[in-house]
Amino acid sequence: MAAFSYVVQLQQHFSNHPKFQKAFHYIVQALEPESEIYKRILSTPIDHYIRYELEDGMFVIEQCYRTKSREEGFFESHRKYIDMQVIVSGSEMMEFSDITNLTIETQYDEEKDLIVYNHSKDTSVFKCGQNSCAIFWPEDAHMPCLDYQEKNGLLYKTVVKVPVA
Known about the structure:
- This protein is an alpha+beta fold.
- The chain has 3 helices and 12 strands; from the N terminus they run E-H-H-H-E-E-E-E-E-E-E-E-E-E-E.
- The strands form 3 sheets. Strands 1-10-5-12-3-2 form a 6-stranded antiparallel sheet.
């Protein structure tokens, strides 16, 4: 059950879940231009990501990259974590599909918590801009990082990893 909207709306819908409350506390700071977290994300060099630990087994991956064509992308899913992907600056397109609609290209890597799937044309598309958030559960294969408003667009993003258990 993927969820996509602006952070404010998703925060309202998931406010009763304690782990999501903590995740949104970080996300709100990540989107506040005066915060240290926001400044840290925007100072991330291109093609780098930095992992920061949060509480209760959560962590974040703050990153900067250039978007890419669909042909360069890949579908992925995770078993141990729910992904909360938040656009801090820039825009990208994301595709998603239920994992039962896809065929596995690379079997589950427990260390990376990653399954890679073959491309499919039977997917849904999110067009993501600043302050938008996509939440992907283990049954949601997703392909982020895709060109949207410009080819090779510069994107600053943070991904909050919320433990499933």
